[in-house]
């Protein structure tokens, strides 16, 4: 695999999937399901009126939450430019309406929790985590009226999603979401004490906080993998590679808790040197992914899952440029310059 760098001052920009054999594909139900899922999120009023309006217009400047105004702005400014529905429609382009709605609701919830947890301390995030996991494990039990909105959101999300999922997918989603939320607590602790980890220590946490594994479980909503296939070393390795590729694609300049700062801290290099390291490691991982894909025994079940993983990576990569999270509305232009 090779990466094509953009010849401009921002050295972050390199087409990490220049030779990736999957193409961008958008679920044709995107607009219809997005309207329903976005209305569902808005019904909880997780943000104040000004912030919700900014979300609806994807305008993430100059708003605030009703409390902790100065603290919430940074996290909220990311959330409102996310286009969570687009994420789901690109990542799961072949899903039917019910399962696409499941995915959109879950991606929305990921980012609402992200907005809440990104500005909270370890104790608060752990309390949020306990509420969320209790709601996922008991989706038909009413939540307390005075509880954080995350509890009822999680309960409704999973109560609606469960009937669209295979038993294995239901079990695996709750298990992987538990790991994810536990790691978010660790990330909050690091943030509060301004801990900068070395590369391997950072990756050990980020492999969980990046949230890839719950998303890959969603590929099994309709057709679950047989346990013998799911536990095959080649499948496990493909999932591990996908997690690390996603980290490298995602973590090139959002916050102190990212791979670039870990590399700079450990190797004593600058941003340009750190990004060269990221690019080289990403290329190594991509080549390994394609090598495994070529040699793994491909039943129809395996072929469908591996295609889903490869497409998921491509879809989320495209979303990075098409949403407003990373490039302040200039993502599509930058992507064209890399091509």
From TrEMBL:
Its cofactor is Mg(2+). Keywords: Lyase, Magnesium, Membrane, Metal-binding, Transmembrane, Transmembrane helix. The keyword Cell membrane does not apply. GO terms for biological process: isoprenoid biosynthetic process. One of its GO terms (molecular function) is terpene synthase activity. The chain crosses the membrane at residues 71-92. It comes from the Eukaryota. It is an enzyme of class 4 (lyase). The keyword Flavoprotein does not apply. Belongs to the terpene synthase family. This is Terpene synthase. It comes from Bondarzewia mesenterica.
């Amino acid at each position: 695999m090779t990466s094509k760098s953009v010849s401009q001052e921002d050295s972050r920009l390199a087409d990490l999937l220049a030779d990736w054999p999957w193409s961008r594909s958008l679920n044709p139900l995107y607009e219809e399901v997005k309207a329903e899922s976005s209305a569902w999120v808005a019904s909880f009023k997780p943000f104040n009126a000004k912030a919700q309006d900014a979300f609806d217009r994807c305008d993430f400047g100059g708003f605030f939450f009703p409390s902790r105004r100065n603290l919430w702005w940074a996290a909220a400014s990311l959330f409102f430019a996310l286009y969570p529905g687009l994420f789901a429609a690109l990542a799961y382009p072949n899903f039917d309406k019910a399962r696409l709605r499941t995915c959109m609701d879950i991606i929305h919830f990921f980012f609402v929790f992200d907005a809440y947890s990104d500005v909270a301390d370890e104790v608060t995030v752990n309390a949020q985590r306990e509420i969320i996991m209790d709601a996922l494990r008991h989706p038909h039990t009413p939540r307390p009226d005075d509880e954080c909105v995350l509890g009822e959101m999680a309960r409704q999300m999973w109560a609606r999603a469960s009937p669209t999922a295979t038993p294995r997918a239901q079990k695996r989603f709750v298990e992987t979401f538990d790991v994810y939320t536990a790691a978010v607590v660790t990330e909050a602790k690091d943030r509060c004490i301004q801990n900068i980890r070395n590369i391997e220590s950072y990756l050990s946490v980020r492999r969980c906080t990046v949230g890839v594994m719950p998303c890959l479980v969603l590929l099994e909503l309709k057709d679950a993998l047989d346990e013998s296939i799911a536990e095959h070393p080649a499948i496990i390795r493909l999932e591990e590679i996908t997690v690390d590729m996603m980290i490298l694609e995602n973590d090139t300049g959002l916050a102190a808790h990212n791979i670039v700062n870990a590399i700079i801290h450990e190797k004593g290099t600058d941003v340009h040197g750190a990004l060269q390291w990221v690019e080289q490691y990403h290329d190594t991982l991509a080549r390994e992914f394609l090598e495994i894909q070529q040699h793994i025994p491909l039943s129809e079940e395996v072929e469908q899952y591996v295609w889903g993983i490869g497409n998921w990576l491509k879809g989320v990569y495209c979303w990075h440029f098409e949403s407003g999270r990373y490039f302040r509305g200039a993502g599509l232009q930058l992507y064209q310059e890399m091509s």
